[in-house]
Amino acid sequence: VAKDLRMQLPVFRERDLIILDRGRTQYFALRSQTGHLVTAERIDREQLCEGVQQCVLRCEVIVGGEM
Fold it and tell me: The Cadherin N-terminal domain covers which part of the protein (predicted)?
């Protein structure tokens, strides 16, 4: 995420970062030390996308401060 936003890690760590997932389970987390988006919970495709050909989990990353 830091690389995609072209932000240096010290600046990235200073920002307020929020990850928005749909539903009750937070499937993703952001590592402020590296700027990587990682899975925070086990993702069970059969449970989440039963009967769907293409399974897509969407999340939004909101970075506070000036861009």
Answer: 1-63
- Output the domain CATH number for residue 58: 2.60.40.60
What is the pTM assigned to this prediction? 0.67
8 Å CB contact between 1 and 34: no
Q: How many domains does the chain have?
A: 1
Q: Pick 10 or 54 by higher pLDDT.
A: 54
Structure-token pair, residue 44: 């069970």
Q: What is the reported pLDDT for 32?
A: 78
Query: What is the chain's percent helix, strand, coil content, to nearest 5?
Result: 15, 25, 60
**Which whole number is the average pLDDT over 25-42?**
86
